[in-house]
Each structure stands twice: as structure tokens, then as C-alpha cells.
């Protein structure tokens, strides 16, 4: 597992094509871009991100919240 802590992120929704893009910025300074997201994927990921303390697993592209 290659887990990274999400420090910041940018959300983009293209209304003309109904596709989303999320850019993750990690604590180690690296970033990851996921684009071409359908509405269900985009909505699910934004719900996880808005709760805060998110982690991203680079190996299987999984986003999850960290419990305190």
C-alpha cells in the first residue's frame, strides 16, 4: 500500500461534458490528478474529502477518511 495524506485538493466539474476532475495535493508535496470522473464517482469522492483527514492509496486509487 502506498498511502498518502491529502493536504489540499482542487475540484473541477465540466458542465458541458458532465465530467469531473480532482487534483489531490499531498503532505509530501506530490500530487495526483483523477479526471474523466462520472457524477457518482465525483460525488462520492467529494463527500469523503469534505469530512477532512482523508488518505489516498496510490496503488488502488482508494480515498478514505482517517478516524481519530
Descriptive labels:
68 residues; alpha+beta; 5-stranded antiparallel beta sheet; globular
Structural class comes to alpha+beta
Mean pLDDT: 92
| Approximate strand percentage | over 45%
Taken from the alpha-carbon principal axes, the silhouette is: globular
User: Helix tally?
Assistant: 1
Query: Strands of the biggest beta sheet: in what spatial order?
Result: 3-2-1-4-5
User: What profile does the largest beta sheet have?
Assistant: 5 strands, antiparallel
- What Rg do the Cα atoms give? 12 Å
In total, the number of strands is 5
- Low-pLDDT parts are none
Pattern of helices and strands: EEEHEE
Distance between the termini: 20 Å
Q: Specify the helix fraction band.
A: 10-25%
Could you explain the architecture of this structure?
The protein has one helix spanning 39-50, and strands spanning 3-14, 19-26, 31-37, 54-57, 62-65. It is globular, with a radius of gyration of 12 Å. A five-stranded antiparallel beta sheet has the order 3-2-1-4-5, with helices on one face. The chain has one helix and five strands. 18% of the residues lie in helices and 51% in strands. A hairpin with a 4-residue loop joins β1 (3-14) and β2 (19-26). With 68 residues, the chain is of the alpha+beta class.
Amino acid at each position: 500500500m502506498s498511502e498518502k495524506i491529502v493536504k489540499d485538493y482542487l475540484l473541477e466539474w465540466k458542465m458541458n461534458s458532465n465530467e469531473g476532475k480532482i487534483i489531490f495535493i499531498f503532505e509530501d508535496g506530490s500530487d495526483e490528478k483523477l479526471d474523466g470522473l462520472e457524477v457518482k464517482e465525483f460525488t462520492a469522492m467529494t463527500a469523503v474529502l469534505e469530512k477532512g483527514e482523508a488518505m489516498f492509496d496510490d496503488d488502488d486509487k482508494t480515498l478514505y477518511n482517517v478516524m481519530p
